[in-house]
Amino acid sequence: MKANKLSFSEDDIRLLYIHYKEYFVSAAVIIISTVVFLLLIPSQIINVFKSHEESLIANNRLKVLSGNFDLLSKVSENTLDQHLRLSSAALPNTKDFDGIISGISFAGLSAGIRVSDYGLEIGDVEPDFSQVNKISSLSLTLTIDGGVEGMKRFLEELAFVFPLSEVTEVQTSGSISRVSVDFYFKPFPPAKLDNNKPISSLTKSEASLMDKLSSYGNASKKTPTVVASNSAF
């Protein structure tokens, strides 16, 4: 049994087209609309979500900038300068030779003892900004003429002038004492201002530390009492 083959002549196709023309047009419109939807609508939806996300980021950035402006507007420049001076005096950003020598002189006069000589371990003079997160120290050895009690008074006065200094070694022989002290410093990191991060005010512990450093600074400004004709060096 032979299978019947379905064949259309050109006239048959033309008749089918004329008869079903409206359906062909509708089908074409549906197909084109579907293609347009698949190509354009998803991208538009993505753009809507992207625009919404960018709007949220812009709003958060605006809130951060507004908060930073409000915080800075409430802090006076004098207060900021004072905090910078206090923190820099307690932990200098470089090896402060002049400040150390002046502080030793002041502590010696206040304690009424004589610092006859000293030795410095200088090391690198310029700060290494690759070590901004590392606290470095400048070692100094002092020879003090004033006995044990005089040495104690000197170290107490030195603690007021340099609250972050550390006595690492003490040797005493009669009225002469040799004291090794480390004076710490830390280079300032490169200034990087991120407008997307909020600026925070000092915490209670940080404010308390500033008050303590201020009390040290006020104490170091007292006029030292000079005993007899002793000098710092």
Question: Brief description of this entry?
Answer:
The chain is an alpha+beta fold. The chain contains 6 helices and 4 strands; from the N terminus they run ααααββαββα. Strand 3 and strand 4 form a beta hairpin.
Which features would summarize this protein structure in a list?
disordered C terminus, 2 domains, Alpha-Beta Plaits
Can you give a write-up of this model?
With about 230 residues, the chain is α+β, with helices and mostly antiparallel strands. The protein folds into two domains: about 10-75; about 90-190 and about 200-220, Alpha-Beta Plaits, CATH 3.30.70.60. It contains six helices and four strands, in the order ααααββαββα. The chain has helices at about 10-20, 20-75, 75-90, 95-110, 145-160, 205-220; strands at about 115-120, 135-145, 165-175, 175-185. A four-stranded antiparallel beta sheet has the order 1-2-4-3, with helices on one face. α3 (about 75-90) crosses α6 (about 205-220), α4 crosses α5 (about 145-160) and α5 (about 145-160) packs across α6 (about 205-220). The longest helix has about 55 residues, at about 20-75. The N and C termini lie far apart (about 130 Å).
